[in-house]
Structure formats: structure tokens, C-alpha cells
Design a protein that fits this description.
The chain is 16% helix and 30% strand. The chain is an alpha+beta fold. It has three domains: 4-58, Structural Genomics Hypothetical 15.5 Kd Protein In mrcA-pckA Intergenic Region, Chain A (Roll); 62-131 and 216-240, Alpha-Beta Plaits (2-Layer Sandwich), CATH 3.30.70.580; 134-211, 2-Layer Sandwich (Alpha-Beta Plaits). The strands form four sheets. Strands 7, 8, 9, 10, 13, 14, 15, 16 and 17 form a nine-stranded mixed sheet that branches. The structure holds uracil. Uracil (URA) binds next to helix 5.
Length: 240
């Protein structure tokens, strides 16, 4: 993608609470400098080379943004607003940009780590069936987990008669026979619920706690977002 763009577009794209028309206004007011000189809003700049400042503060160029959301129940992982609110409504103004979407889906009643980004390439890599990026879930069940469950999941079970799952890793939780952690290397529709349902059990609470080798920040409250640093992005694609 070209890094050459109009100054007003650059500013509106990089600073979330400045609209394109506000950016023009800032330029007219002489609040925007390109390499130390006042600049017209329609001046072309190279986002990677030129030094841009607004009100004396340098604007660092970021091509994409990566947001960790701790999704609460009741929100859908979609960009379209149907009957339920979407996860995009939880992105605060300071992180919001055009073109954001959730990379991957959690069910409406599932909590936990959702990546929201405008980077289609990374999302494709993360979600491609071939990439097998790990997703780890904390699961609570209606009934005690059967003794043979870990072995059945590890062997690659078949669900709903013909869908074969990749081997998955179940870790028991100490002193609780109704809870576990489950790591999947793929993301079939309702997969965790369907795997347990196949064994006659029912998921009553589900939370995604990590993607690749990146864990959901334990201090991030439900419904809140934080920006993932560019240096950490690779962790989203790691196999653990
Ligand atoms: N598996 C499910 O059943 N639901 C989710 O939201 C994620 C994984």
C-alpha cells in the first residue's frame, strides 16, 4: 500500500478524534507542520518519511491498529448492527478507526479475548485453516467431565457425524470436575460447545483466554480494550 497520501487524510487516519474536515481546519490554522513547515491540507506527504506534527506533537505513523478486547456476553463479533450490539461499539474513540473488524468470532454468550484490527492480512493468517493458531478457552460445564474426555479430544474426535476435529488439549482444573482449559488449533463453528455436547455434557460458561502465545490481560476488565503493541503482534500467530 502506498504511504504517499494527502496531509488531511493522514491526520484524520492517524488521530482518531480528528475528522477529515477538522484536519483541513487544523492545517488552515497553521497547527500542522510537515518537516517543521506549515503545510496546506492537500499537500502530499510520505507517511513513512516526512515528520508531521499537530500542535507541536509528533504524529507517529501506524499503518494498522491491533486491539485486545475482553468481550462481555451479549455482544456479537460482527461489523453489522442487527438486533444485538457489536463488539465494535466497545472500542473507545481514542482507538477507533475506519475499517476495524473483529478477527474471528466468539459466540454472543462467550466472553474473553477478541482481536479487533484493520489489518486484513494478519487476520487472514490468523484465521486460515492451515495456520492452526492456538486458541485457549476456560470452560465450565453442567456435569462432571468424564475421565476419558482428554483422550478423546487428543485423538481428534468427530462431531455431528462427519466433522473431524484436530487433536485438542484438555487440562483439568484442580478440585473442580466441572471446569477445564481447552486448547484448539482451529476454529470450527461452536466448536467447544459441540465437542462437549458430543460427549453428553453442556458448556455453561466459556471464555477465550489466549490467541497464539498472547494471553488476555488479566487486569483488563470485561468490556474494555487495550492497544496491542506492534512488537507483540507476532505472538498472535505463534504456535504454543
Ligand atoms: N467454541 C464455541 O463453542 N463458542 C465460541 O464462542 C468459541 C469456541
Amino acid at each position: 500500500m502506498s504511504k504517499i497520501m494527502r496531509l488531511d487524510r493522514f491526520i484524520a487516519g492517524q488521530i482518531s478524534d480528528i475528522s477529515r474536515s477538522a484536519a483541513k481546519q487544523y492545517c488552515r490554522q497553521g497547527r500542522v507542520l510537515v518537516n517543521g513547515k506549515k503545510a496546506a491540507f492537500d499537500q502530499k506527504i510520505d507517511a513513512e518519511i516526512d515528520e508531521i506534527s499537530v500542535d507541536g506533537e509528533k504524529v507517529r505513523y501506524k499503518e494498522h491498529i491491533y486491539i485486545m478486547l475482553n468481550k462481555p456476553q451479549g455482544y456479537v463479533c460482527s461489523t453489522r448492527n442487527g438486533n444485538s450490539p457489536t463488539v465494535l461499539e466497545l472500542v473507545p474513540k481514542r482507538l477507533y478507526r475506519c475499517g476495524l473488524f473483529p478477527a474471528g468470532r466468539l459466540d454472543k454468550d462467550t466472553e474473553g479475548f477478541v482481536l479487533i484490527t484493520d489489518d486484513g492480512e494478519l487476520s487472514h493468517k490468523m484465521l486460515s485453516p492451515k495456520s492452526h493458531v492456538d486458541k485457549r478457552y476456560y470452560v465450565e460445564l453442567k456435569d462432571d467431565i468424564r475421565e476419558d474426555t482428554a483422550d478423546i479430544f487428543a485423538s481428534g474426535m468427530t462431531i455431528d457425524n462427519n466433522e473431524v476435529c484436530l487433536p485438542a488439549k484438555l487440562e483439568r482444573v484442580k478440585d473442580n470436575d466441572k471446569a477445564c482449559f481447552l486448547t484448539l488449533h482451529e476454529g470450527k463453528f461452536h466448536q467447544v460447545k459441540r465437542m462437549f455436547s458430543q460427549l453428553g455434557n453442556e458448556v455453561v460458561y466459556l471464555k477465550r483466554v489466549s490467541i497464539g502465545s498472547m494471553e488476555l490481560d488479566r487486569d483488563l476488565p470485561l468490556g474494555e480494550c487495550l492497544e496491542i503493541l506492534h512488537k507483540d503482534i507476532q505472538k498472535l500467530l505463534d504456535k504454543t
